[in-house]
């Protein structure tokens, strides 16, 4: 005879851990996108209004909508501040997306545009342009910097691809470190023996948005735009690559093609951005980590959100540089390092670490 307790027994509730579903993930992405766009609008307005001569936002709006060439305030906004703001928008997006692609490609959480020798290659090419071809203006640096960045990236990828295993994350990182060391020593050797090159190079090398005009933007925008589009096109493939090469191949993915396209994307983005504003650090390292922490590792959401978020950080650093040393200014590369280091330390604390 069955005891009453057993007859009436019902299975108790099963304790489960709720995970955010696709709808919850989409809400987080949309929330981040809205906040990023709002912050970007504020940062852009500050970039146009703040400087050695602070101007009210009403004057900024009037200069953009009803430009008067006889008004000196309008001239400052449209001829000086607007170009550097637009260059900052393009360069910030390029650095962050390039960093996210590099981290996904190499599966290395500290990968950033300097890993593949991009910065050192661009610096060496600019030094050659100054010493050999007597290039003295920022507009003339663009093509040398872009060519040097592209050549260094191709060299690193060629070295890292040698051998039966092909290009692996470790080999690419080691090849990048070796090429960077060699190119940096060559740059230092030239600068120490050529005073003209040192004087012309120092402001570009530290990273700056000052004295950037629309000509520089138009020269670098095609490569940056092509790199951003290519990054979005391979975002799904980067998700597969993040699971490991064997898993990606098992899913039918062409790993070699993905790596080659990612390398081209990095060359286009880093080459264009570095040519425009110099080798600014931390933007391509911090922003992908911050975005990944809040929206997850899916590159289909990560890459476009990095492109919207990073320009805000770069423009805010530029505004800080203009304010702290009036009537002069500190270069944005210096402020980015000062702001970026503590932010990165906060992001990589063990309780907040985010895996790729």
From TrEMBL:
CDD domains: TM_ABC_iron-siderophores_like
Protein family membership: Belongs to the binding-protein-dependent transport system permease family. FecCD subfamily.
Keywords annotated in UniProt: Cell membrane, Membrane, Transmembrane, Transmembrane helix, Transport
Extent of Low complexity compositional bias: 9-21
GO cellular component: plasma membrane
The protein's name: Iron complex transport system permease protein
Gene3D superfamilies: ABC transporter involved in vitamin B12 uptake, BtuC
Keyword Cell membrane in record: yes
Bilayer disposition of the protein: Multi-pass membrane protein
């Amino acid at each position: 005879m069955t005891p009453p307790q057993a007859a009436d027994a019902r299975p108790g509730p099963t304790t489960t851990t709720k995970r955010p579903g696709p709808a919850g993930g989409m809400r987080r992405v949309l929330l981040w996108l809205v906040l990023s766009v709002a912050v970007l609008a504020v940062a852009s307005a500050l970039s146009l209004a703040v400087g050695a001569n602070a101007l009210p936002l009403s004057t900024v709006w009037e200069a953009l909508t009803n430009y008067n060439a006889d008004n000196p305030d309008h001239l400052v906004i449209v001829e000086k501040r607007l170009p550097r703001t637009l260059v900052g928008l393009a360069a910030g997006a390029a650095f962050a997306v390039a960093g996210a692609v590099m981290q996904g490609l190499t599966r290395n959480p500290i990968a950033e545009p300097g890993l593949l020798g991009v910065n050192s290659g661009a610096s060496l090419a600019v030094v050659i342009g100054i010493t050999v071809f007597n290039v003295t203006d920022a507009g003339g640096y663009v093509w040398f910097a872009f060519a040097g960045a592209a050549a260094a990236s191709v060299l690193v990828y060629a070295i890292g691809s040698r051998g039966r295993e092909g290009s692996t994350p470790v080999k690419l990182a080691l090849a990048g470190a070796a090429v960077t060391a060699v190119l940096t020593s060559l740059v230092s050797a030239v600068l120490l023996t050529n005073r003209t090159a040192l004087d012309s190079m120092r402001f570009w090398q530290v990273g700056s948005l000052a004295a950037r005009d629309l000509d520089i933007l138009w020269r670098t925008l095609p490569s940056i735009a092509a790199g951003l589009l290519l990054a979005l096109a391979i975002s799904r493939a980067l998700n597969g690559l993040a699971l490991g090469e064997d898993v990606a191949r098992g899913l039918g993915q062409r790993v070699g093609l993905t790596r080659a396209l990612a390398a081209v994307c990095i060359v286009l983005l880093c080459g264009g951005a570095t040519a425009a504003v110099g080798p600014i650090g931390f933007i391509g390292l911090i922003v992908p980590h911050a975005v990944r922490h809040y929206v997850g590792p899916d590159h289909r959401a990560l890459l476009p959100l990095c492109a919207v978020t990073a320009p805000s950080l770069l423009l805010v650093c530029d505004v800080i540089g203009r304010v702290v040393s009036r009537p002069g200014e500190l270069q944005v590369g210096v402020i980015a390092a000062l702001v970026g280091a503590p932010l990165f330390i906060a992001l990589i604390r063990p309780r907040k670490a985010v895996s790729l």
